[in-house]
Specification:
Length: 62
């Protein structure tokens, strides 16, 4: 018996997750795959960064 099997044999059993129905499983995986939604704060920060970059580019322009 190797060390990993020995450790796994003596680990306490955790509670197994409850069985999901097909619809619940579909919702679970759909929620895992969706892309993160842009929040207003992130959108504002992005707009401010782009604005500052364009302002600096116009000032530094030779």
């Amino acid at each position: 018996m190797d060390l990993q099997s020995l450790v796994a044999a003596h680990m306490p059993n955790r509670r197994r997750p409850t069985q999901m129905g097909a619809a619940a499983e579909d919702r679970y995986y759909r929620n895992q795959i969706t892309l993160p939604r842009l929040r207003l704060r992130l959108l504002g920060l992005t707009a401010a960064t782009v604005g500052a970059t364009l302002l600096l580019a116009s000032v530094i322009k030779p």
